[in-house]
Amino acid sequence: MNESIDKMTLREKLTEADRLMRELVDHLDNGFIPKARNLSRTIQEHGSNTESLSDMSVRQHAAEIIDDHRFSERLYEKIGALLVAIDGDVTSIQEGQ
Question: N or C end of the chain: which has fewer CB within 10 A?
Answer without folding.
Answer: C
